[in-house]
Structure formats: structure tokens, C-alpha cells
Amino acid sequence: MTTVFARHCASRTALEEIGSKWGILALLALGEGAYRFNALRRRVDGVSERMLSQTLQTLERDGLVTREVHSTIPPRVEYSLTGLGEKVADSLRGLADLLEGSVAEMSAARERYDARGD
Amino acid sequence: MTTVFARHCASRTALEEIGSKWGILALLALGEGAYRFNALRRRVDGVSERMLSQTLQTLERDGLVTREVHSTIPPRVEYSLTGLGEKVADSLRGLADLLEGSVAEMSAARERYDARGD
């Protein structure tokens, strides 16, 4: 039985890889559809070429993302989600929707916390 | 309209804080019920005292976690989730269940990837 709580469990490693900032954002973007590298980089605001490339390799290795090379001239390389990747992206989309809808509540909480000054 | 994709949006900051390894694991643990600091530290295998303390402060400031001091001798300090924290933890539990159930699939994907050697 694997559990995300245990230091050496495979599901915890996966959680760390997916839970990285760029992992989450790349999966969310690919949840919208297939992307070419540069378009994906524009969608994930602020990511460097190197970080996005590393992130996609990790996600491809984990079986969440597929990299497809179309033999056109010049070759077209597209990234998309696998079946498992879709499920993970759906789950992350739920989290992102929740956070996007809770910004005011969280911002009010931060103001209260900072005003306490303890 | 806030979006996790935009670099300076509040929901992206929240996603980064919650999506941090210890943020996810602390929220998942507190989803099981209230914890005292040391018990929580044992549950979240591998976290240092300092990292857990910082993580809890961030989550408290974001309005996801409540810190309650009971005036016993010695004082008992308990951490639990707020209403918003419960919602976020539920969402993360869905993700963790998915990953815990996909360990074999992900491990097979990694072996295929590494065998390609490209």
C-alpha cells in the first residue's frame, strides 16, 4: 500500500513532481488541449525554456504527457495529455477553480493575519 | 478575473503555497482531523520542525488553517482546517487517491521511458 505521507513512497514522488509550480501549470494548460512548445511557454506565464523543457520531460516520463513529432518541414512537436494525465489535470482544474474562486476570502484572511501582528 | 496562469495573480500565489510539497501534505493530514504540532510532524514523514512551522504559518495566513491555543497546563496548541481549508484538502485528497492508485501505471511508464534511451 502506497501513501503520499511516507517519505519513500512512489506516490509521494509523483505528488512532488506534479505539485511543483510548473508541473501543475503545464498540466492545467495541456488540459485545454495539445500545445506546441512555444505556445505552451506563452500560456504558462513566466516559465523559462529550460524549466518548461525539464517539466515536460518529467511528466512524459511519469506517463502523464505525450510528446508527438509530426514529420512536416519543419517538424512539428506537440505535447498532449495521456489518459492518466487527463485525470490528474481534471483534479488540478478543480483545485485551481476553487482557489480562483476564493481569492477574496484568502486575501481577507491575510489582512486579518497581518493586522494581528503577533 | 484571476487566473492561475498569470504570473502576478493571487490565485497563482495560493497555488504555489498550497502546491508546495509540505503544504499539500500538511493539508492532507489536517483533512484527517485536528493535530497537535508534534503529532502532525510525525504524520508528515520527513518534514523539519522549521519547515512545518513555516508551512502552517503560511496556511494560517491564507485562511486555510486555524491555530487554537487551549489554556491547559501546559498549553495545548492544535491545528485544524477552516471551511475553505476543508474544501482545498478534499480536492487534494482526490489527487492523492488518484496518484496512490496509479503508482503501477506510472512506474511502468518510467521504465518504458528509460528503456528508450533517447
From TrEMBL, chains A, B:
InterPro entries: HTH_HxlR, WH-like_DNA-bd_sf, WH_DNA-bd_sf. Signal peptide: none annotated. Residues 9-107 form the HTH hxlR-type domain. Pfam families: HxlR. Keywords: DNA-binding, Transcription, Transcription regulation. It comes from the Bacteria. The keyword Ribonucleoprotein does not apply. SUPFAM superfamilies: Winged helix' DNA-binding domain. GO terms for molecular function: DNA binding. PANTHER family: HTH-TYPE TRANSCRIPTIONAL REGULATOR YODB (PTHR33204:SF37), TRANSCRIPTIONAL REGULATOR, MARR FAMILY (PTHR33204). This is HxlR family transcriptional regulator. The lineage of its organism: Bacteria, Bacillati, Actinomycetota, Actinomycetes, Pseudonocardiales.
